[in-house]
Amino acid sequence: MAMSCPLNRYLLLMAQEHLEFRLPEIKSLLSLFGGQFISSQETYGKSPFWILSIPSEDIARNLMKRTVCAKSIFELWGHGKSPEELYSSLKNYPVEKMVPFLHSDSTYKIKIHTFNKTLTQEEKVKRIDALEFLPFEGKVNLKKPQHIFSVLEDYGLDPNCIPENPHNIYFGRWIADGQRELIESYSVKKRHFIGNTSMDAGLSFIMANHGKVKENDIVFDPFVGTGGLLIASAHFGAYVYGTDIDYNTVHGLGKASRKNQKWRGPDENIRANLRQYGLEKYYLDVLVSDASKPSWRKGTYFDAIITDPPYGIRESTRKTGSQKEIPKGMEKCPESHVPVSLSYHLSDMFFDLLNFAAETLVLGGRLVYWLPVYTPEYTEEMVPWHPCLRLISNCEQKLSSHTSRRLITMEKVKKFENRDEYSHLLSDHFLLYKGHNSFREKYFSGVTKRIAKEEKSSQE
């Protein structure tokens, strides 16, 4: 039976990577542009084909100017489980909605897109010829058509079991492509200034989208490193600011992270990274500062806080302290105003981060950060909580067989009050949060066990 076609239905063709991150990105961007996520599908799972209801084509175009998780969007004219269902669905589509794109003065072409199957040219031509019943009056132009139409066929997700016939067939008018090319053009491999943990370009843009970063926002990164997250926010027109405890990183000094290069050069700093992409005008400043002791007056400054705190694996977790805070038994240093570096427990780091976000974000502003977890022990209750912040999304990226990190997105929904600062101590899950403190030991314990297992199997 053919499906009826309600107004403003669109087909999104999604990229097949970072699957968990796709839905929160699309929801966040629709919310940013005044749309709402409405879908007839219960769940998307791993499918690259999503049917959405979007209020207008302008919102659909704005969505595609931002997304790195979607490849293309189409105005959906027909959909069926078989060619017959598709044709029936197309015949039910309102002719008045087709006419503006099919009149005699227009040019067009029809493309065939298949997922998980390759068709011969002959098979493609056969599918195009079968659409002759549509009221096309314009001329075919394969090089520069005014309108592009696509038949999209879905052959499922299993490359080892490709069906003879597609599970679903869609027909639509192409509207716009997403921003997948940003992943290559902003690749860390081509960047002047990188560190051991510079964020992958694709994930940086996903984080900015989860944070609903927009033009003229002020975006802050308290663990700025080499500034990769600032670059993604600046690309979308936000003014960017950051801090880091590492003097050499902030000033672009010391040993280089690149292979076959000993020391950092004069163009290896965060400002130079933004200059490389023509984004220097969005650079506010980066300071040497300790995230555990923010030097800010009370107030709301930021539209988004987007950050990747250190986990103690490739970058150490540190904070400044006084001589009095050094544990007994350690060798005494002469009195000095130079800050002493102390270890910084992960649970404390995340509570400080959430409190800082609750104090300094504007209402509706978002905090986006990575939370490392030891997978065998992880539960949702281990995600830090704050009365001023509402959890929006929680997406997993696997790091190894036993560890992963989760991209946590929270939105400020309540004005910060002094009593909120220690509210986490009243939470039933407070002891669970403390489990994050042993992440480093568990990470390396798992690595050691894996190496021993591999060595044993190679000797057998």
UniProtKB/TrEMBL annotation:
Main subcellular localisation: cytoplasm
A GO CC term attached to the entry: tRNA methyltransferase complex
Functional description taken from the UniProt entry: Catalytic subunit of the TRMT11-TRM112 methyltransferase complex, that specifically mediates the S-adenosyl-L-methionine-dependent N(2)-methylation of guanosine nucleotide at position 10 (m2G10) in tRNAs. This is one of the major tRNA (guanine-N(2))-methyltransferases.
Domain Ribosomal RNA large subunit methyltransferase K/L-like methyltransferase: 190-320
This protein's UniProt keywords: Acetylation, Cytoplasm, Methyltransferase, RNA-binding, S-adenosyl-L-methionine, Transferase, tRNA processing, tRNA-binding
Family: Belongs to the class I-like SAM-binding methyltransferase superfamily. TRM11 methyltransferase family.
Catalytic reaction(s) noted: guanosine(10) in tRNA + S-adenosyl-L-methionine = N(2)-methylguanosine(10) in tRNA + S-adenosyl-L-homocysteine + H(+)
Compartments where located: Cytoplasm
Assembly, per entry: Part of the heterodimeric TRMT11-TRM112 methyltransferase complex; this complex forms an active tRNA methyltransferase, where TRMT112 acts as an activator of the catalytic subunit TRMT11.
This enzyme's EC code(s): 2.1.1.214
Spans traversing the lipid bilayer: none
Domain tRNA (guanine(10)-N(2))-methyltransferase TRMT11 N-terminal: 9-180
One Pfam family this sequence matches: Tmrp11_N
Gene Ontology terms, MF aspect: tRNA (guanine(10)-N2)-methyltransferase activity; tRNA binding
Swiss-Prot/TrEMBL GO biological process terms: methylation; tRNA processing
EC class of the enzyme, as a word: transferase
PROSITE patterns linked: N6_MTASE, SAM_MT_TRM11
Protein name (Swiss-Prot/TrEMBL): tRNA (guanine(10)-N(2))-methyltransferase TRMT11
